[in-house]
């Protein structure tokens, strides 16, 4: 019995450490939604796979953006204080954060609304109501595309470095 308890405790400790490491390496997603119930629902779904941060309007979201190293923003469009369009424009106009992909969620379904979101710089636009599984798939697609681009960029950089070394193998000692 003592061996079993020690094994169980050790296994649990390893599981906790693995979860902590996965959380540290997880993509960081900011959820911005003024509807507290929907915000909590999205957070419950996404925290299983991502490290999530929450804000209830664009102003709060900008504070999180400036204080946290994020990978993705998911924002409602219609919110008090600063809406999703304004948030998207603010993020995209800041050189330090313009690389962040943004998914906008909205009840607005007109083509002009979708156009406005994409012109503002949104990576995707999802009409409400939506299935949370669809949101999850779109997040996964954005992340996979970003990983693919990063991999290609790194590969290209390595090739360029090797080419430069091959062209001038002697170090410059001047």
Helix content: 55-70%
Which strand order do you get reading across the main beta sheet? 2-1-3-4-5
Structural class: alpha/beta
Query: In DSSP terms, counting alpha (H) and pi (I) runs of 4 or more, how many helices?
Result: 6
Main sheet specs? 5 strands, parallel
Task: Give the integer mean of the pLDDT values.
Answer: 84
Low-confidence stretches: none
Total beta-strand segments? 5
Taking Cα atoms only, what radius of gyration do you get, to the nearest Å? 21 Å
Beta-strand content: 5-15%
Distance between the termini: 71 Å
Q: Topology as H/E string? A: HEHEHEHEHEH
Shape: globular
Describe this structure in words.
By secondary structure, this protein is an alpha/beta fold. The protein has helices spanning 2-25, 36-46, 58-67, 84-92, 111-120, 132-167, and strands spanning 28-32, 51-55, 72-76, 102-106, 124-127. It has a five-stranded parallel sheet with strand order 2-1-3-4-5, sandwiched between helices. The mean pLDDT is 84.
In short:
The protein has 174 residues and is α/β, with parallel strands linked by helices.
Index terms:
single chain; 174 residues; alpha/beta; 57% helix; globular
List the helices and strands and how they pair.
Blueprint lengths: L1 H24 L2 E5 L3 H11 L4 E5 L2 H10 L4 E5 L7 H9 L9 E5 L4 H10 L3 E4 L4 H36 L7
Helix pairs in contact: 3-4
């Amino acid at each position: 019995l003592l061996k079993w308890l020690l094994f169980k405790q050790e296994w649990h400790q390893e599981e906790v450490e693995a979860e902590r490491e996965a959380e540290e390496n997880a993509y960081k997603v900011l959820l911005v939604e003024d509807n507290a119930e929907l915000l909590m629902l999205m957070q419950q779904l996404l925290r299983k796979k991502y490290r999530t941060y929450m804000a209830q309007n664009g102003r709060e979201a900008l504070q999180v953006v400036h204080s946290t190293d994020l990978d993705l923003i998911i924002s409602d469009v219609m919110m008090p204080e600063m809406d999703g369009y304004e948030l998207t424009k603010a993020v995209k106009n800041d050189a330090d954060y313009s690389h962040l992909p943004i998914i906008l969620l909205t009840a607005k379904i007109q083509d002009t609304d979708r156009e406005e979101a994409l012109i503002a710089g949104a990576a995707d636009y999802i009409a409400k109501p939506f299935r949370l599984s669809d949101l999850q798939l779109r997040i996964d697609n954005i992340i996979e595309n970003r990983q693919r681009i990063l991999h290609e960029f790194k590969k290209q950089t390595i090739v360029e470095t090797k080419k430069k070394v091959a062209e001038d193998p002697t170090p410059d000692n001047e």
